[in-house]
Amino acid sequence: MISYVNFKMQPDTLPNINLLIGGLKQSPDLTVYDINDLVKNFELPREIKYGLLLGIANFFNSDGSSDKDKSIQSLLELLEQLKDKNIVSKAPIIPEEVKRRKIFSCIDINKEYDGNTAFKLENISFDLFEGEITAVVGENGNGKSTVCKIVAGLLKEDSGTLRYPIFQTDPEKLNWLSLKEKIIFLPQELQKTNGSIEENLIFEGRMAGISVDQIEDVTQFYIQRLGLHNYRYATWENLSGGYRLRFKLALCLIKQPRLLILDEPLGNLDIKAQAELLYDLRQLCNSRVNPLTLIITSQHIDEIEHIADNILYIENGRALLNCKISEIGEDGESCFELRSPSINSTILFELFKPMGLVRTYMTNIGQAMLFEKKISFYDVSKTLYKSNIPISYLREITHSSKKVFYFGT
């Protein structure tokens, strides 16, 4: 077990202020998250702590490069002041070898609903590790939400094994009262919350154990971080769907969960808001001190795959794909998706059968093509160009779960 210890910061200990300064100059988008971990896990002088929180918030809410540069400069000046300070850690020193510990495991989970529905969840098995994002994808009604509710302890499995290795002292017994302090499930249908954003964050933060002298700074950080600074006094009725989601996420994050489960969070967001949310979630999981583990369900496969480490593709209650994102497309086949006003499957086979085309599929975008061997994007685009086929969209999806969605395993 790793216990909480106190130590004086020295040049060879973590976090190294010089590394943070260098990182802020070279890669500020990533380093600000490490600075946030510094604020949360070390006893800092109050004026420096407040300045760092304000600088981080200003960085994320800056409108242009000039404002962002000012925020970076402010953070650099504060970090320089810390180099000569004696700072005591409030957090455990996490050895490198345990940074990606297994946080959850399930084996052969089954669930069948009573009544007229014929739906069954069958033999689902997967692992979750600290700091990783697992995307659960598939069409509606295929079991995504059921899996999430079982992991969160909101739904009882009929059979199978659940394990939470980091949280369980007894491997044969689950203490759900303790587990539910570390796991948060945010459903697709958001429940109304009374009171203002700021009032709710203060309340939830205090309930989560944040001290009186810290709650104001922590509350303002999450308000700024999730872009709620113009709505801190707003109530539920005055928020759009996107800002209601941000509000709920802030309430989740201020409780500092170890495992966060989001069910279809992208549905009410525009494209820009989706990208911002997914980027923020990825950075929260990248934290070196308090890595968040995330399960996210969605039908937005393209967007989710860009940030996920693992993918669980469910169809009719069964896992058709369960692997690392990096492992998709290692079967020697190639797959492409295209859109053209003057093409159909017959024309595609005439053009590409000599190159190994074996199947096509009509998608909501246009046509998908499956080749039995490796084909380059260049070869496909060149063939279309030489045949005078007008193309408005062409994308290789060999390494995407969309390949499984269209053609199966």
Plain-language structure description:
- The protein is an alpha/beta fold and 409 residues long.
- It is 37% helix and 21% strand.
- The chain folds into 3 domains: 17-89, no CATH class; 98-326, P-loop containing nucleotide triphosphate hydrolases (Rossmann fold); 331-407, YebC, transcriptional regulation domain (Alpha-Beta Plaits, 2-Layer Sandwich).
- The strands form 4 sheets. Strands 7-8-9-5-10-11 form a 6-stranded mixed β-sheet, sandwiched between helices.
- Residues 1-14 and 91-98 have low confidence and may be disordered.
What would CATH call the class of the largest domain?
Alpha Beta
Please identify the oligomeric state: single chain
Number of domains: 3
Structural class: alpha/beta
Mean pLDDT: 84
Unreliable segments (pLDDT under 50, ≥5 consecutive)? 1-14, 91-98
Helix content percent band: 25-40%
Q: What is the correct CATH architecture of the largest domain?
A: 3-Layer(aba) Sandwich
The rounded Rg comes to 24 Å
For the secondary structure, the number of strands is 15
Name the strands of the widest sheet in spatial order. Answer: 7-8-9-5-10-11
**What overall geometry do the principal axes of the alpha carbons give?**
globular
Number of helices: 14
